[in-house]
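name: query_chain
kind: protein
chains: 1
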Amino acid sequence: MSHSLNILVIGGSRNIGYFSAIRLLASGATVTFLLRSPSVFDQDTAIQQYVKSGKAQLLKGDALVQDDVQRAWDQAGSGGIVDLLLFTVGGVPKFTFLKGFVISPTNLATQCLINALCTMPRTSPPPRVIAMSSTGLTRASHANLPLLLKPLYGYLLTVPHKDKLGLERVVAHCAGWSWNAKDDGEPVEDLVGPDWTKLEGLPAPGSFKRVLVVRPSILTDGECVAERIQSGPEQDKGKKPYRVGEGDLRGWTVSRKDVAHFVVDAILNRWDEFENKCISIAY
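structure:
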């Protein structure tokens, strides 16, 4: 890289966003976190060392509030052009008997992403965006799931996946990707209203190509297999810790730490390979 990256992270208090941010900070990047509760990192020695060095900035705010997201862009941009937005908003689902897992609000990721895109700096070039989604959202993607996973996706994860489908619809609109409205509908209308495409500041259809959508399989808290292989015996060299590819992969699980490994590898080393694509990842 010609310069250390300047990155805004929304959804980085835990899981994929957190593990990715730690890797990015270790690479020399400057990371601004938008956090509802910055105190989440009070006892986190890994983050605090970067706060003390000035490489990590913790900004209190709610990504559901557009003015807070604007402040986050402004804060991140105070040190130079923002190179990338890492968007990993997902919420904490709660189980209900009738609806499976639910999130509140039901449009959490969709609305937060819209706020981020509507307030994104109009620099040249604009920031890159990585948005975290999931497998099994569209009808075609659901059809490609392993048979035993289909009830899980069809019942337990319906509500959070509707939100992720809204997120993907927003990206498809801004990036100019085709959308199968006949099979998958227009979910965003249910989440943010019928006139969402006319929102002030939202990139025009097909105008924003610097985006990567990542679709992990079912996420686990397992180890980072990529690190184990890279540091293992010579006979382990050459093994693939996980599979990635456009479209759908028939896979069961992948750890959050391996998704973070892929995200950072894509940012630092393989952006030209993955830009303007939707990439699935699984073991």
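note: The domain at 6-282 is CATH 3.40.50.720 (Rossmann fold).
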